């Protein structure tokens, strides 16, 4: 009975989207883009309010919230620009008086399922390319962070997006998400979230021959070589490990360090970690905010015990903050393990919290091998001044994103975002590559010879 | 209270250009920094027909 009722809500959204999409696809793309320019402008005008609301529901510190909203603004203008590109290809035909071209065609109704850790940025990565390409969207945001979805839907409405082109259905993954995945008229699912849910979605979409784009976990590492600028490496590690309290899919959770600089790095990291102010992200002085919920806290605590039992050495943190201003929220102390080995669970599994494990290595080759030893393949980083190692590393690190002399976070919206191996299934969010998720290629042949010309046969 | 920033107490689905109230279950959106409820979000397990 419940299944039937929740299905009706999704059904209603899909019916509306299907109808709206037919007309939306007929609007020339540069005019579709005009809506996105207005969306971007409203977001820009409202940046501070959106950022505050984002901190309120997600907990990330206000400086990062402003960065995330900016990412959405950037994506709006970038994808609006696609309204005058959406490039297809022309190519010579093999016969006389025949023309050949391929164009990107919208797919129809697309379903997007977005996580709580970047509630507005990821929504823009997915909905903007879908909409500019002429699709209609049914969107299920995470129930932890629905306010950004509410605000973005209001912005779409104000910007004059025709009714039904975007539809927001709040609810859990097991009800609304499931109904979307099973709906025959939703032809694409674009999902960011856990590997467990993602592989379940992929299996179900596979049975229905439904296109699915997955962006999932990471076990991202910073490599610090013996010739690295250690101060810079410390800054990069602190920012990418403890920013968003380690709850980014690109968060640094491993540091692979050359044994010659291990002690120096440990010392300097500990000093830097002591400077981190932990608290309510709306306070401008705070550098590390709370963990999203109790389930997140429990998972982190579990991994601290696992790390200790595996024999890694706890250098700092490892506990819940429960006193004073930390009493009512979910606060976990930034944590540093050292002497971890590549095969330990704390060095292999995603923790999604402010926990970093140092893994000492003896050589550049070993560092690469350790980096590549995890099932995930999202982001990696190397600190070195050796140009030869830089170029070897960018070739040999097996992740979808590689940083040189910067931490594992900080993607820009006009480049493809995504991971190899267990992180995804080959698609990319953001960049022009995002269009590959929401369009299909159509090949068109125009024969203007006035006679039957057979390809491959009448070519003599 | 931080939730004075919100102009509504409970969110609605946005379907076909209309804000549709959802009858039935909701869940609280909790500010993880303070444990305070910011707003309620519907769990669309019931028909949304108002």
Structural commentary:
The complex is a heterodimer of chains A (460) and B (50). With 460 residues, chain A is an alpha/beta fold. Chain A is 41% helix and 20% strand. In chain A, the strands form five sheets. Chain A has a seven-stranded mixed sheet, sandwiched between helices. In chain A, strands 5-4-3-6-7 form a five-stranded parallel sheet, sandwiched between helices. In chain A, strands 1-2-19 form a three-stranded antiparallel sheet. In chain A, helix 5 links the parallel strand 3 (109-113) and strand 4 (136-140). In chain A, helix 2 runs antiparallel to helix 4, helix 2 (29-45) packs across helix 6 and helix 9 (230-242) packs across helix 10 (262-274). The N and C termini of chain A lie far apart (66 Å). The model of chain A has no long low-confidence stretch (mean pLDDT 97). Chain B is mainly β and 50 residues long. In chain B, strand 1 and strand 2 (18-20) form a beta hairpin. Chain B is globular. Chain B starts with 12 loop residues before the first strand and ends in an 8-residue tail after the last strand. The A-B interface holds A 2, 5-6, 8-10, 12-13, 16, 20, 49, 52-53, 55-59, 143-147, 150, 153, 157, 162-164, 166-172, 175-176, 279-282, 289-293, 328-330 and B 2-3, 5-6, 8, 11, 13-18, 22, 27, 29-36, 38-39, 41-48.
What layout of secondary structure does this protein have?
The complex is a heterodimer of chains A (460) and B (50).
Chain A: H1 2-26, H2 29-45, H3 47-58, H4 62-82, E1 89-92, E2 98-106, E3 109-113, H5 121-132, E4 136-140, H6 147-158, E5 166-168, H7 173-182, E6 186-192, H8 195-207, E7 211-215, E8 220-224, H9 230-242, E9 252-258, H10 262-274, H11 294-310, E10 313-316, E11 320-321, E12 331-332, E13 335-338, E14 355-361, H12 364-371, E15 376-377, E16 379-383, H13 387-396, E17 401-404, E18 420-421, H14 435-438, E19 439-447
Parallel strand pairs in A: 3-4, 3-6, 4-5, 6-7, 8-9, 8-16, 9-14, 13-14, 16-17
Antiparallel strand pairs in A: 1-2, 2-19, 10-13, 11-12, 15-18
Chain B: E1 13-15, E2 18-20, E3 26-30, E4 37-42
């Amino acid at each position: 009975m419940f299944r039937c009722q929740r299905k009706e809500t999704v059904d209603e959204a899909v019916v509306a989207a299907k109808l709206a999409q037919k007309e939306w696809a007929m609007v020339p793309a540069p005019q579709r883009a005009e809506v996105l320019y207005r969306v971007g402008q409203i977001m820009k005008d409202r940046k501070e309010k959106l950022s505050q609301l984002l901190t309120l529901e997600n907990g990330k510190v206000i400086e990062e919230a402003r960065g995330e909203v900016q990412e959405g603004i950037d994506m709006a203008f970038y994808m609006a620009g696609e309204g005058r590109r959406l490039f297809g290809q022309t190519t010579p035909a093999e016969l006389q008086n025949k023309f050949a071209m391929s164009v990107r065609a919208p797919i129809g109704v697309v379903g997007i399922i977005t996580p709580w850790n970047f509630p507005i940025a990821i929504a823009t990565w997915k909905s903007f390319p879908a909409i500019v390409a002429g699709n209609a969207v049914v969107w299920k945001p995470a129930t932890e962070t629905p306010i950004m979805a509410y605000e973005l839907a209001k912005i779409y409405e104000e910007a004059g997006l025709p009714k039904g082109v975007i539809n927001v259905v709040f609810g859990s993954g097991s009800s609304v998400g499931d109904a979307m995945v099973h709906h025959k008229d939703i032809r694409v699912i674009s999902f960011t979230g856990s590997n467990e849910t993602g592989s379940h979605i992929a299996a179900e979409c596979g049975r229905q021959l439904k296109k699915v784009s997955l962006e999932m976990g990471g076990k991202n590492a910073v490599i610090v070589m013996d010739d690295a600028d250690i101060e810079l490496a410390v800054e990069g590690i602190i920012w990418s490990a403890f920013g968003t309290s380690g709850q980014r899919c690109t968060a640094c959770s491993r540091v692979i360090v050359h044994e010659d600089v291990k002690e120096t790095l440990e010392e300097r990291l500990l000093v830097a970690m002591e400077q981190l102010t932990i608290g309510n992200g709306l306070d401008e002085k705070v550098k590390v905010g709370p963990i999203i919920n109790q389930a997140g806290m429990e998972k982190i605590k579990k991994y601290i015990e696992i790390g200790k039992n595996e024999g890694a050495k706890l250098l700092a943190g490892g506990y819940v903050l429960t006193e004073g201003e930390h009493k009512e929220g979910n606060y976990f102390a930034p944590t540093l393990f050292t002497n971890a080995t590549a095969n330990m669970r704390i060095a292999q599994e995603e923790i999604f919290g402010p926990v970093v494990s140092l893994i000492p290595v003896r050589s550049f080759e070993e560092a690469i091998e350790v980096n590549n030893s995890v099932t995930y393949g999202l982001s990696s980083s190397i600190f070195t001044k050796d140009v030869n190692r830089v170029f070897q590393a960018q070739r040999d690190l097996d992740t979808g994103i590689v940083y040189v002399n910067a931490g594992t976070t900080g993607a820009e919206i006009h480049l493809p975002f995504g991971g190899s191996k267990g992180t995804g299934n080959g698609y990319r969010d953001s960049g022009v590559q995002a269009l590959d998720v929401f369009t299909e290629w159509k090949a068109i042949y125009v024969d203007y010879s006035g006679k039957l010309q057979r390809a491959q046969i009448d070519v003599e | 209270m931080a939730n004075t920033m919100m102009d509504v107490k409970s969110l609605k689905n946005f379907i076909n250009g209309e804000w549709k109230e959802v009858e039935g279950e909701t869940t609280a959106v909790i500010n993880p920094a303070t444990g305070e409820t910011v707003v309620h979000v519907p769990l669309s397990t019931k028909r949304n027909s108002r």
